[in-house]
Amino acid sequence: MDADVTDSAGTPADPDLPAGDTPQGRSQEEPGAADSKKEPEPGKGAPQGEAADTDSDSDSGTDSDSDDDDGDDSDAHVPQGSGDDGKADADAGTDSVDGEGEGRAGGAQTWADHPKDGSASRRKRPWLRWAALGASFLVMISAGAGWWLYKKLDGNITTDTSAAAELKVYEKERPTPVVMDAQNILLIGSDSRSGDNKKYGRDDGGSQRSDTTILLHLAADRKSATAVSLPRDLMVEVPKCRTGDDKETREQFTQFNSAFELGGTACTIRTVERLTGIRIDHHMVVDFNGFKDMVDAVDGVEICLKEPIDDKDARLELPAGRQTLNGEEALGYVRARKTLGDGSDTERMERQQKFLGALVNKMQSNGVLLNPTRLYPVLDAATKSLTTDPGLDSLRDLYDLVRSMRDVPTDQVQFLTVPRQPYRQNVNRDELVEPDASELFKQLREDKPVAVVPADELKEKEKAQDGKPDDAGSESPTPTPTYSGSSAADDLCEQ
User: Tens of pLDDT along 186-225?
Assistant: First the structure.
């Protein structure tokens, strides 16, 4: 290559060439026009095989640095064969540097002369397109699977529209909410023996009875949750209720769990509202299988037994000591009564409360509520056997409820039984202890705190206060009412 190639500015236009002889519109020629031009004679023009590059450069505009003073493309106005060897060589040199040429016609290409014009990138683009398509496909599959799972869980939930309709009829009788952001949810454990529950007892024509009823109060600030068990044998006033065949029952003073059998969920809700003065915002009815499957979904719950259990009615046989119960065993444990303790329903409720606390603790400590992979089986188990009011009948509603509770400290998830004692006219029934029960209902109604301690601690505290005047310490703030109970932070094996 000649030394003039290094002159990137190119050679000036020939001053002896008349202006009229300069070809016009060269820069606007169609691509490939240079191929029809007469090649320059050897020694007078560009070397053979490089003339095609001149038009290529002109079209792509890569030789803008070689423009003359008047702004015209110098290589577009220099006729072929003008003897401007330096210009041709400069163009060739520029092509080799800028990489805009199409190669040396008629000459062998080396890797050094190979054009770097993006053709390699174009060869790679099919792979990029395939990668993008694959990623898009995976996103669509994931979205489709997520939607399918959502619809499946959402479809598991049964909506109780009949209860909502009946409650609307009796709206004027219902309490008015006191604290709007607080939530009061009535949890009802159905002991129906129909369908999959036949093996747990006699089927009385598919009738339902509320084996367990819990009033769950969620504080407005979501810093505490209080679950109050209502004994099924508690003597209460049951209002007039509509039955399944659209008949109306009479108002009566009877045991609490008959309200569910007489008028279903709506009758139970109205009975609780009359008893407590607390407005029930939502309700959930869960049957045996729902509870059992939830325990299995968290890989069991650990308990400790001081003595072995052999209860044929509860289908339960367990050794003494620390052990983890699966769903079937857990169901027998919370239902057993005759062979555990004094055989009372009150003691069974306390056992249920402690087990539920251990279940909540297991879900929080293992990160179930924060892990979608582990949360799905729990939600699937819960929703399969769940009947709710229209306000909680979607997966989104349930998820929002669970999410609002996941930051509640386990020691502030409290369980207790409403203050009760044997009914004076029938020791096999219960009645409220006043004024303790009314004070508890007032605290919950006004979203004020309550405290729970083990029964033995509460007895010691009551003994220590015996003999003190009622106005002792009246100058200090009103103490938080304390009741016998437990929290989700309690270890069942340390009690």
Answer: 999 876 544 454 454 444 444 566 678 999 999 999 999 9
CA 307/CA 319 separation, integer angstroms: 7
User: Residue 325: left if φ>0, alpha if ψ -120 to 50, beta else—which one?
Assistant: beta
Could you give the maximum distance between any two Cα atoms of the chain, in Å?
134
CA–CA separation, 370 vs 364, rounded Å?
8
C-alpha separations of 278 from 178, 254, 394 in Å? 9, 20, 25
Q: Name residues whose C-beta falls within 8 Å of residue 391's C-beta, 6 or more positions apart in sequence.
A: 281, 282, 397
Residues near 301 by beta carbon (within 8 Å), at least 6 away in sequence: 295, 324, 325, 330, 355, 358, 359, 362
Integer Cα distance of 395 and 344 in angstroms = 37
SS3 170: coil
Mean pLDDT of 114-123: 54
Which residues share a beta bridge with 431? 421
Residue 372: cis peptide before it, omega within 30 degrees of 0: no
What pTM value is reported for the model? Answer: 0.67
Collapse the DSSP code of 449 into the 3-class scheme (helix H, G, I; strand E, B; otherwise coil) and give the result.
coil
**Dist CA 57 CA 95 (whole Å):** 8
Phi-psi region of 433 (alpha: psi -120 to 50; beta: other; left: phi over 0): beta
Q: Take residue 249 and report the two structure tokens written for it.
A: 């029952």
List, in sequence order, every residue forming a beta bridge with 15; answer none if it has no partner.
none
Q: Give the span between the Cα atoms of 167 and 269, in whole angstroms.
A: 9
* 362 token code pair: 């297991």
